[in-house]
């Protein structure tokens, strides 16, 4: 990323990203992390590495950010996020691929990298406060057999 930014500066960069909506095996709890940059509770999110399969990226991000092993089960949601500008002036826009992932729930999550200050399980009937995107994606995860959602 740094090498690419040396060439394009702060120009808008199109990035593939993943959201991992991780539920425990009993489907009674969801995993959420508290972001270090703004304090918001969110599912695990991250950027897909060049050449990486998106589902593998989701599983990798969960392990890196929360120390939890999980398995991607299905694609829940595909959407383009609004452009954002970071504090350093870099601009990016993300294609978000949201995966339903399952963990056995026996591991206790923890903030495994510097991107988050906390990681924990929340009851599905009492999730943390989240923005509209993540609330919609959680609803898709809770609905059995729901087809992948696309914005039209």
UniProtKB/TrEMBL annotation:
Organism superkingdom: Bacteria
Similarity comment: Belongs to the Nudix hydrolase family.
PROSITE patterns listed in its UniProt record: NUDIX, NUDIX_BOX
Annotated GO MF terms: hydrolase activity
UniProt domain Nudix hydrolase: residue ranges: 13-144
Database matches in InterPro entries: NUDIX_hydrolase-like_dom_sf, NUDIX_hydrolase_CS, NUDIX_hydrolase_dom
Protein keywords: Hydrolase
Protein name (Swiss-Prot/TrEMBL): ADP-ribose pyrophosphatase
One Pfam family cited in the UniProt record for this chain: NUDIX
């Amino acid at each position: 990323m740094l090498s690419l930014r040396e060439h394009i500066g702060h120009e808008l960069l199109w990035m593939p990203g993943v959201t991992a909506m991780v539920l425990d095996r009993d489907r009674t709890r969801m995993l959420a992390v508290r972001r270090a940059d703004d304090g918001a509770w969110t599912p695990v999110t991250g950027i897909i590495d060049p050449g990486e399969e998106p589902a593998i990226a989701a599983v990798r991000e969960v392990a890196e950010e929360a120390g939890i092993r999980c398995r991607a089960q299905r694609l829940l949601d595909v959407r383009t996020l609004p452009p954002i500008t970071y504090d350093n002036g870099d601009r990016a826009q993300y294609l978000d691929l949201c995966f339903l992932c399952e963990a056995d729930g026996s591991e206790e999550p923890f903030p495994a990298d510097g991107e988050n200050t906390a990681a924990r399980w929340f009851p599905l009937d009492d999730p943390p406060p989240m923005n509209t995107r993540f609330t919609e994606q959680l609803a898709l995860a809770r609905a059995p057999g729901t087809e992948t959602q696309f914005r039209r």
